[in-house]
Design goal:
It is a single chain. The protein has 996 residues and is an alpha+beta fold. The protein contains 23 helices and 20 strands. The strands form three sheets. It has a six-stranded mixed beta barrel with strand order 3-4-9-6-8-7. It has a six-stranded mixed beta barrel with strand order 13-14-18-15-17-16. A hairpin with a 6-residue loop joins β3 and β4. α7 runs antiparallel to α14. It starts with a helix and ends in a 12-residue tail after the last helix. The mean pLDDT is 81.
């Protein structure tokens, strides 16, 4: 009999039964769906990382590693595989492109960090590469990736080619999400990655070694953390041993090379000194010969002159003798008649001999004069040749000195190189070795954070759903037991035990809860993870196929809680009735004593109310249990609606808040050289026609160190002048704050919240060279995109001992934006046109337009819209079910009262107004309470929802408040409309029935 009455009860009150089933399904589904989502996400990621052989350790050393080091580390007992890798940041441009961007180049590894090919193939030749599939908007296969010439020498020396042909697009497990890391190049952010064949790098060492352990546990699990903790010391010791061996080997090789170089220098220098001495001796001999020649010429000239004089004097004497001889012959001829033959013969012989002798002497003298003339010509020729010989000597001397100078310069350079080599060897420090686990990978750490966000929401929202479900079950079953009080009394009178009677109601509520739990658990364990995975798939690059989880223990817990909420509430409701005897149960409960409500004590208001309104207010406030149930149920729904809408408010406008209220400049410029005052002046003059205002600042990526925690942040150092025209530093109360002075810093609020920092605390910043700054926090500013620390240039100079490089500029494009800060399409186009002109100017390496960041973050935020929509729909469904159930209970328990007023002549509209007026008032009160509760719940949820890239603004727009209330009333009116037909079907004869 009880079975029949139980099933008859289910059929007759199917709406109530379905309401219990639906509320349990919603509560269980929301809890289990969200709870299992993280498990499904983590399992999917764990399988992907296992398949791609994701590294467990990344080992780096300041001196690099060799193949022997890779072999030594792979021989460790806990290591399954080790792979050496080469990586370097480089400026590049796409084929046909004009903008230099930053790419992280890696070598393809085997056994660790295997790549997933999206299209094409992996590189096989030294001039081929496979690129990040996010790097190019169009298919890049076949195009060239061109390494920019303005890379530093070390980077260019590491690469064998300046152009690489793209053979494919890939997904790398190193880059799990859309973040590509930071760098000291350009604007400090890597745009993408590319993989080269090992032969594409011109290095004989590895920049890092990746290790994969031989024990594979699920990521983020305690077992995995334990194995990392157990092996880290051994891995670190082995890495340090390898680094130390390489250090000693490099020192030994460097010293040997230095000794060889010194030996070669000494030998060459000795040979040079010998050759120099020989050359100088030859030159000295040549000069001496020239000098001797000059002396000889002078001497010979003097001798020639003397001889010429002597010969001329002798010639005169001979010619005088000839004249005398001629006179004598005339005298002889004249006196010949007077002379004897003997005298004539003797005289003739004497004169002839004298004449012959004089002629011979004259001829000899004339020959001597000819020789003198010839000698003089010879001297003149020697004198003419002398300047040429001197010139030849001087040229030989100059050539020799030039060769000497060149040799001396080369030897000086060699001595400097040897000295620098000694200093370099002396300065080679023992290597710093870094052993990084998976948590050092940004994508890996962010995925844990993002999956934990879902888990955090699962810890908050389902509590409300279960509480409201328990409340609805308790209300429903309490009203049901109260309605069937007489039947319970009759069954007890007929001899049915309390357990048998309670079993009827326990089966009613328990079966509804069981069916609802099964439907909610299995449906939402598929729907919730799928929707959220689609959302997060926009940020993460791996595995589009989600691994679905059916968590049996979670299902059992959900079922137990569901049955506890439903059957427990039923048992409590029945227990109070079972304590009474059948005679009391058969008779209706005596009505409670009437009491005046607070409003009746205010005649000024009470006397102005109509009778029906007075009745409505009495019913609302006298029946406190129903009032409490309605307020708690509906306010909880309003709170959930407001939280969902508030999540959307806090998320969707983050980018607008950032770039309309804080970073109000249009774009930033990254330069490839330090912009000195002279370069700044030249740049300002050239850019004056396409920009409104420019501020030069220092911007770099530094590490924020707080205790054992290290966080990469963006540091901006400025003089402070005009800075507020580009970046508004304001606190949470929207108050403007001054730019920090020397040894002070302003920190963004997200960093302060994450690391427990406050005003007056000291923070430590470390740059890429390992130098540290200690600064006092004088302000905590609002910031929503990325993490910033602002300091003064004086702080940089004083604490780091050098002037900051000015390689960044913040720019207001011409014309300025509208007065309200809005960006029209024409304005956006003007900004891009301005940035394009600036990009072609000298020393400009890159331009980052804020509108691009708006678009990128805006697209990323769409992923959270799925989660928010899921929350809003669930909250809406819950609100509808609660309102329907409570209204149905209200009508059911007041059916005689409603029948009576219909008998009294109330029209259908008046009857519905009489009943639903109370619902509207209760809905209004509940909605107001729900707004306060929703604001608290929203703040709590936002505190637990954290994304590294963004800081969400905890704010709810006035429209969301209106919508939350409006939706609550919409659900109330829809429920009232549905209940109207039930009111209309109530028979007036019900009022004539007596309980007896």
């Amino acid at each position: 009999m009880l079975k029949k009455t139980t099933f008859r009860e289910i059929r007759s009150s199917l709406g109530r039964y379905i309401a219990i089933m639906a509320i349990v399904a919603l509560g269980v589904g929301f809890f289990s769906g969200l709870k299992v989502t993280r498990e499904a996400m983590v399992s999917t990621a764990s399988d992907y990382l296992s398949d791609s052989r994701f590294f467990d350790y990344q080992i780096m050393s300041t001196l690099g590693f060799t193949e022997e080091d890779v072999k030594a580390l792979s021989d460790q007992a806990s290591v399954a595989a080790a792979a050496g890798s080469v990586s370097v940041d480089a400026l590049y441009r796409a084929e046909g492109g004009t903008i230099d961007q930053i790419v992280k180049l890696h070598s393809v590894t085997e056994g660790v960090n295997t790549l997933e090919v999206k299209s094409g193939r992996l590189p096989q030749a030294e001039n081929e590469c496979a690129v990040d599939y996010r790097l190019f908007a169009e298919d890049p296969i076949g195009k060239k990736l061109i390494i920019a010439d303005n890379n530093d020498k070390d980077t260019l020396d590491m690469l064998k080619s300046r152009e690489y042909i793209i053979t494919g697009t890939v997904v790398s497990p190193i880059y799990l999400n859309f973040e590509r890391g930071s760098t000291s190049l350009g604007d400090g952010k890597v745009d993408g990655f590319a993989y080269l064949d090992r032969s594409g790098f011109d290095t004989d060492y590895f920049t890092e070694i990746y290790l994969r352990l031989n024990q594979n546990y699920q990521i983020y699990s305690q077992s995995y953390d334990d194995i990392i903790e157990a092996t880290k010391d051994d891995v670190k010791a082995a890495a340090e041993l390898c680094a130390d061996k390489r250090y000693k080997k490099l020192i030994r090789e460097a010293k040997d090379e230095l000794e060889d170089g010194q030996r070669e220098y000494d030998e060459n220098y000795a040979a040079y000194q010998s050759e120099k001495a020989d050359a100088e001796a030859k030159l000295a001999d040549s000069w001496q010969q020239i000098q001797n020649g000059k002396v000889e010429i002078e001497k010979n000239k003097k001798e020639l002159n003397d001889n010429e004089k002597k010969l001329k004097d002798a010639l005169k004497q001979v010619e005088a003798g000839i004249l005398q001889t001629a006179q004598k012959r005339q005298e002889f001829e004249a006196g010949k008649p007077y002379m004897s033959e003997t005298e004539i013969a003797q005289t003739e012989a004497a004169l002839s001999k004298a004449e012959k002798q004089l002629a011979a002497n004259k001829k000899q003298i004339q020959g001597g004069l000819s020789q003198v003339e010839a000698g003089r010509k010879e001297m003149e020729r020697a004198e003419r040749d002398l300047p040429g010989n001197i010139e030849k000597y001087e040229k030989a001397r100059a050539d020799a000195e030039a060769e000497f100078a060149k040799a001396e310069k080369e030897f000086k350079k060699a001595r400097r190189e040897l000295r620098e080599a000694r200093e370099e060897i002396r300065d080679i420090k023992a290597p710093d070795t870094f052993v990084l686990d998976r948590y050092s990978n940004v994508g890996y750490a962010c995925f844990e954070s993002d999956s934990t966000i879902v888990d955090s929401i699962a810890k908050v929202f389902p509590i409300f759903f279960f509480l409201i479900a328990a409340l609805v079950c308790m209300t429903t079953m309490t009203r049901m037991v109260d309605e069937q009080r007489t039947q319970i009394g009759v069954m007890k009178a007929l001899g049915y035990s309390n357990g048998a009677i309670a079993g009827k109601y326990l089966f009613y509520s328990g079966s509804a809860a069981f069916i609802g739990c099964v439907i909610g658990f299995f449906s939402c364990c598929y729907v919730f993870p799928e929707v959220i995975w689609v959302a997060y798939g926009m940020m993460y690059d791996f595995s589009a196929d989600l691994y679905y989880i059916v968590n049996v223990p979670l299902g059992i817990i959900s079922l137990a809680v569901s049955l506890l909420c439903s059957m427990g509430a039923t048992m409590v409701s029945c227990w109070s009735e079972f304590r009474e005897v059948p005679a009391q149960l058969i008779r209706p409960k005596a009505p409670k004593d009437g009491k005046r409500i607070l409003l009746e004590r205010i005649p000024l208001l009470w006397n102005r109310l109509s009778f029906l309104y007075k009745v409505s207010f009495r019913n609302i406030f006298r029946y406190k249990k129903r009032f409490f149930m309605m307020v708690v149920g509906i306010s909880g729904c309003t709170a959930l609606l407001l939280t969902g809408l508030g999540l959307r408010d806090s998320v969707k406008n983050v980018v607008d808040y950032q770039f309309d209220e804080i970073q109000v400049y249009d774009y930033s410029i990254t330069f490839d050289k330090d912009m000195t005052a002279k370069r700044q002046e030249a740049f300002l003059e050239k850019a004056s026609d396409c920009t409104e205002d420019i501020l030069f600042v220092h911007q770099s990526s530094v590490d924020l160190i707080v205790g054992k925690n290290t966080k990469s942040v963006t540091m901006i150092a400025s003089g402070g002048e005009r800075f507020d025209q580009f970046v508004n530093l304001k606190d949470a109360k929207d108050r403007q704050m001054p730019y920090p002075a020397k040894n002070e810093a302003v920190l963004c609020s997200k960093l302060a919240d994450d690391y427990g920092l406050s005003m007056g605390d000291m923070l430590t910043l470390r740059n890429e060279d390992g130098k540290e700054m200690s600064l006092s926090i004088v302000g905590i500013c609002e910031n929503y995109v990325y993490n910033y620390v602002y300091i003064s240039q004086d702080s940089y100079v004083e604490q780091l001992g050098e002037s900051p490089e000015i390689k960044c500029a913040l720019v207001h494009a011409a014309p300025k934006p509208d007065a309200d800060g809005t960006q029209s399409d024409e304005r956006v186009q003007a900004v891009y046109a301005s940035s394009a002109k600036v990009l072609d100017m000298d020393h400009v390496a890159a331009v980052s337009v804020n509108q691009d960041m708006r678009n990128r973050v805006g697209n990323m935020m769409k992923s959270l819209d799925y989660v928010i929509a899921l929350v809003i729909l669930s909250a809406g469904a819950l609100a509808f079910i609660v309102l329907y159930n409570l209204t149905n209970i209200n009508i059911t328990e007041r059916i005689r009262e409603i029948a009576t007023i219909k008998v009294l002549g109330f029209y259908p509209g008046e009857t519905s107004s009489y009943v639903f007026r109370e619902n509207i008032f209760l809905t209004a009160i509940s909605a107001l309470v729900g707004l306060g509760l929703g604001k608290w719940l929203h703040a709590f949820v936002m505190y637990n929802v954290r994304v590294d890239l963004l800081c969400f603004d905890v704010r709810i727009s006035w429209l969301s408040y209106v919508l939350a209330v409006a939706l609550t009333f919409v659900f109330a009116f829809v429920v009232n409309l549905a209940m109207y037909y039930k009111l209309d079907r109530i028979s007036m004869t019900e009022s004539l029935k007596s309980i007896e």
